[in-house]
Amino acid sequence: WALRISVLPAAEQYSFLYATAPEGFLLGPTLLHKVERAPGHIVKGLAMSVTVPRSFRLLEELDRGEKGFGDGTVSYGMEDPDDIHMRSWTGTIIGPPNTVHDGRIYSLKLHCDLNYPEQPPKIWFKSRINLSCVDRDGRVDPIKFLMLGNWKREYTLEQLLTEIRREMSSPTNRKLPQPPEGTTYN
User: Fold this and answer.
1) Residue 86 DSSP one-character state
2) Domain span holding position 127
3) Is residue 73 assigned to a domain?
4) CA dihedral defined by 103, 105, 106, 111, rounded to 10 degrees?
5) 123 and 31 in contact (C-beta within 8 Å)?
């Protein structure tokens, strides 16, 4: 159970401390008197590790996915906008140039269970693809795709899709024969 702590300036000598628990439960506000603040309104002497709750993390990722990023060769968003737990996502990767994937558009499904981001999402290709890290059912294998196998909480959906695209350009995968374009997994 991790808390997100926010110290907001209210007046010269006062600040409000808000603690937000997982899934958006609000604890506080509590008025702090004569708080000594460092630049940026960070409370001096308050040494704690703050973990951003899952829902906030996914909202940040959704916002970034909706706004677009990078060169447009990878994108992602919610599969079902009514999914309040934000579990089902879709992704798109445009195949890298100078490979057998050049110009192809690949669709993926990402599933962030309730342990995300502590645990990696599960990823499947919807579009058929031949990659060394993808099994015969389209699942990205965490044993063969090191970013999933060596998952860190800081990794994002954007980074995962970008790394999968990079894997398409690897010497092992860049010339692998591919299924006909437009075919999908069942």
Assistant:
1) -
2) 54-168
3) yes
4) 130
5) no
Residue 19 has pLDDT above 70, yes or no: no
The CA distance from 169 to 127, in Å, is 17
Whether residues 76 and 163 share a domain: the answer is: yes
Question: Which among 151, 145, 159, 154 has a CA at the least distance from the CA of 69?
Answer: 159
Q: Is residue 154 part of a domain?
A: yes
Burial bucket for residue 182 (CB in 10 Å: 0-12, 13-18, 19+):
exposed
Does residue 89 contact residue 70 with C-beta atoms inside 8 Å?
no
Please check whether residue 177 lies inside any domain of the structure.
no
The mean pLDDT value of the chain amounts to 82
Phi, psi of 34 (to 5 degrees): 45, 55
Reported pTM: 0.73
Distance between the two ends of the chain, CA-based, in angstroms? Answer: 39
